[in-house]
């Protein structure tokens, strides 16, 4: 299924949601199932980790994390170069630092980095100077600096390849389920290829 089909006709042209970068790496089929639910009540399909993650972003999404004027929070962005759109978590204007908050970071996955890259490129296209990117683990108060994409050509290439794969993905193409991922997938009951 082409990307435009599973993004939906009412979606901004054919832009990919930034959150899809991590979801696609977890399982390319998950984006399709996510779109099936559309704007339905998330309690119908989300599990405890998703609910807790969403709750940890509440202050950002409502722009109540801080009242300081030198901090962008929950700002909508898009990146023409890569065809991406979504929201940033926090951008500290004075230090030129982009931060993505996670409830608890156990591992830094490629998909996490790709979401941060997307925010980085979107902010730069909007004219912001971004000199540092990082993750912040809220539960243990730890910061994890990440190399800028131009300083890590291998990860930048993986980022670009992931976008290409999303744009060319066909739901009917051959798919090999991963038992570990299927076990933790919130869409497992819908998936005819799930191993659970």
Automatic annotation (TrEMBL):
Residue stretches making up the DUF83 domain: 20-191
Pfam families attached to this UniProt entry: Cas_Cas4 (PF01930)
Domain of life: Bacteria
Transmembrane stretches, start-end: none
Protein name: CRISPR-associated protein Cas4
Species this chain originates from: Sedimentisphaera cyanobacteriorum
């Amino acid at each position: 299924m082409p990307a435009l089909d599973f993004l939906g006709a009412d979606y901004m042209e054919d832009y990919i949601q930034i959150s899809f970068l991590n979801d696609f790496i977890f399982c390319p089929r998950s984006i399709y199932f996510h779109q099936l639910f559309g704007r339905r009540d998330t309690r119908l399909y989300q599990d405890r980790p998703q609910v807790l993650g969403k709750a940890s972003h509440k202050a950002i999404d409502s722009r109540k994390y801080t009242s300081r004027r030198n901090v962008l929070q929950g700002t909508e962005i898009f990146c023409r170069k890569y065809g991406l759109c979504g929201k940033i978590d926090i951008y500290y204007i004075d230090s030129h630092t982009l931060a993505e908050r996670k409830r608890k970071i156990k591992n830094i996955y490629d998909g996490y980095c790709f979401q941060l890259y997307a925010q980085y490129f979107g902010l730069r296209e909007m004219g912001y100077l971004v000199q540092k990117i990082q993750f912040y683990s809220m539960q243990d108060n730890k910061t994890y600096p990440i190399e800028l994409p131009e300083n890590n050509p291998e990860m930048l290439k993986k980022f670009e390849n992931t976008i290409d794969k999303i744009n060319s993905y066909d739901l009917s193409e051959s798919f090999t389920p991963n038992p570990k991922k299927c076990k933790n997938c919130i869409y497992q009951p819908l998936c005819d290829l799930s191993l659970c």
